[in-house]
């Protein structure tokens, strides 16, 4: 089963199990990576926050409201030596991340094997039943999951979002399948997909960008769109014998709560905040959306939830993905006992994310182009250049972009236009490099570099060109600069190592 593509794996599970056909209503959610976002810091922020929510939540669960303020202030302090540990929520997310990293791909059978072989702290009932089915009763992993609407599938899903922040189809497939391993339930599967979508959406936003209700409405709409049509039934709520499902709660009730600006405790009283994912995930989303730029306030609100550790993990993962590690209070982070392990995993997930071309902000935009024609000249020139980029006709693209810059020099200041111009020059340079026209290739790469002096791919292209021109000094300088800017860029490291080796031989 390791050799199956995601689509083949999904079709197999549909045929062999009771897994919901969650891809039947595959409305695309636009996830657009941008070059100004520090993705490694964002991924670190999400993973560290997942662990912090779990550790703080389990450590402070059951505290009275008047005690939370004092305890939270104590733990936040840089001078205090308290140390806190993670539990099952983070442990299972780590197992999922380790499987992705080791295999450099998604293999649910390996994930299932890790769930039964590695120790888990405070195992919940759903996971206990899964372990009994798979390990003890020898039931196949893909039919060992239980019909449970708990929140365990959602809370462990962040690694899926962190390697697919520009690829919604892969994100939805992986998030849904990973949930089905233990939670073979429509709403549990939807919860994993919507939480993954929320994380990916926020990773692509610059920190502190959520400022008004319109921004929040767009975020909620994207979350709702990601799970539209998955749930074909409704579930009982714990209030007044009403019925709902995750889609209606997020797309309608969450939107209304934001519009009315309800108090957090009012929403908690209305929806609940227990382990039932219909309660905990929408509540965590609301806590985040009420104070998206205030890490400490979100944590304090989560500590008053019924399922404290999971609600805190869900909400803090969102703000961690949004703000990044550098914007999390250092006093909180320093208390995490396995911080180094979390950071190392985060960095490996970032490296894995670079393998998916849809996550590349420098290449992604050209794949979203339509044939629509704009009326004014600047748009006509730009879109014609983009069209040729998409068709790999870089010589023609360069011509249109050069005409655009000559006629409208101010267009150089537009970040989106700059990305397309870089794409054209890099594509043409790469073509010339393959034709061994090294001097011409050099000119193209230098033109591209003029639009972004810190572009690691262009710097590496220049290094390779100078290497072919037998100028090891300049080749090393550009390769080293590429690695300094993007240490995770594997090609850059390999080129630098090759150049260093050649210099030693000479």
TrEMBL record:
On whether ATP-binding is a keyword of this UniProt record, the answer is no
Has UniProt tagged this entry with the keyword Repeat? Answer: no
Molecular-function GO term, any one: hydrolase activity
Task: Quote the cofactor binding remark.
Answer: Binds 2 magnesium ions per subunit.
Cofactor(s) named in the record: Mg(2+)
According to the UniProt entry, where is the signal peptide? none
Matching Pfam families:
ADP_ribosyl_GH
Sorted alphabetically, the keyword list is: Hydrolase, Magnesium, Metal-binding, TPR repeat
* Residues bound to Mg(2+): 87-89, 307, 309-310
TPR repeat start-end pairs: 378-411, 422-455
The record's annotation in InterPro entries points to: ADP-ribosylglycohydrolase, Ribosyl_crysJ1, Ribosyl_crysJ1_sf, TPR-like_helical_dom_sf, TPR_rpt
Q: Which family does it belong to?
A: Belongs to the ADP-ribosylglycohydrolase family.
Protein name per the record? ADP-ribosylglycohydrolase
Starting at the broadest rank, the lineage of the source organism is:
Bacteria, Bacillati, Bacillota, Clostridia, Peptostreptococcales
């Amino acid at each position: 089963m390791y050799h199956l593509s995601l689509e083949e794996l999904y079709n197999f599970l549909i045929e062999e199990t009771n897994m919901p056909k969650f891809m039947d209503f595959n409305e695309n959610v636009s996830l657009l990576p941008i070059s100004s976002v520090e993705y490694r810091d964002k991924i670190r922020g999400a993973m560290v926050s997942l662990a912090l929510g779990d550790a703080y939540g389990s450590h402070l669960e059951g505290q009275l409201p008047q005690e939370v303020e004092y305890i939270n202030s104590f733990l936040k302090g840089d001078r205090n030596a308290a140390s806190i540990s993670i539990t099952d929520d983070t442990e299972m997310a780590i197992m999922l991340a380790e499987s992705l990293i080791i295999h450099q791909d998604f293999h649910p059978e390996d994930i299932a094997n890790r769930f039964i072989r590695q120790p888990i702290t405070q195992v919940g009932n759903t996971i206990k039943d899964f372990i009994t089915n798979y390990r003890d009763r020898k039931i196949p992993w893909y039919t060992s999951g239980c019909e449970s609407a708990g929140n365990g599938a959602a809370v462990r899903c962040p690694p899926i979002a962190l390697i697919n922040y520009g690829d919604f189809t892969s994100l939805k497939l992986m998030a849904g399948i990973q949930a089905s391993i233990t939670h073979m339930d429509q709403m549990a599967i939807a919860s994993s997909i919507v939480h993954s979508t929320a994380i990916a959406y926020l990773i692509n936003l610059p920190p502190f960008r959520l400022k008004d209700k319109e921004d929040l409405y767009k975020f909620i709409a994207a979350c709702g769109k990601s799970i539209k049509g998955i749930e074909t039934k409704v579930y009982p709520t714990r209030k007044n014998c009403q019925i709902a499902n995750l889609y209606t709660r997020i797309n309608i009730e969450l939107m209304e709560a934001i519009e009315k600006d309800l108090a957090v405790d009012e929403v908690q009283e209305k929806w609940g905040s227990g382990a039932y994912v219909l309660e905990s995930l929408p509540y965590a989303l609301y806590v985040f959306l009420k104070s998206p730029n205030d890490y400490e306030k979100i944590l304090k609100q989560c500590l008053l939830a019924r399922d404290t550790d999971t609600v805190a993990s869900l909400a803090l993962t969102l703000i961690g993905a949004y703000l990044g590690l550098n914007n999390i209070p250092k006093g909180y982070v320093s208390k995490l006992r396995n911080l180094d392990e979390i950071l190392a995993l985060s960095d490996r997930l970032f490296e894995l994310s670079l393998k998916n071309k849809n996550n590349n902000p420098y290449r992604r935009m050209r794949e979203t182009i339509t044939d629509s024609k704009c009326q004014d000249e600047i748009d006509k020139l730009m879109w014609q250049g983009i069209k040729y980029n998409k068709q790999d006709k870089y010589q023609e693209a360069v011509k249109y972009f050069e005409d655009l810059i000559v006629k409208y020099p101010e267009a150089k200041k537009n970040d989106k236009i700059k990305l397309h111009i870089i794409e054209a020059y890099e594509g043409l340079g790469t073509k010339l490099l393959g034709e061994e026209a090294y001097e011409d290739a050099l000119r193209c790469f230098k033109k591209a570099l003029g639009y972004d002096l810190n572009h690691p791919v262009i710097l590496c292209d220049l290094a390779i060109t100078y290497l072919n021109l037998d100028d090891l000094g300049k080749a090393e300088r550009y390769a080293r600069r590429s690695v300094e800017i993007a240490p995770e860029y594997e090609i850059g490291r390999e080129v630098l190592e090759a150049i260093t080796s050649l210099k030693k031989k000479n």
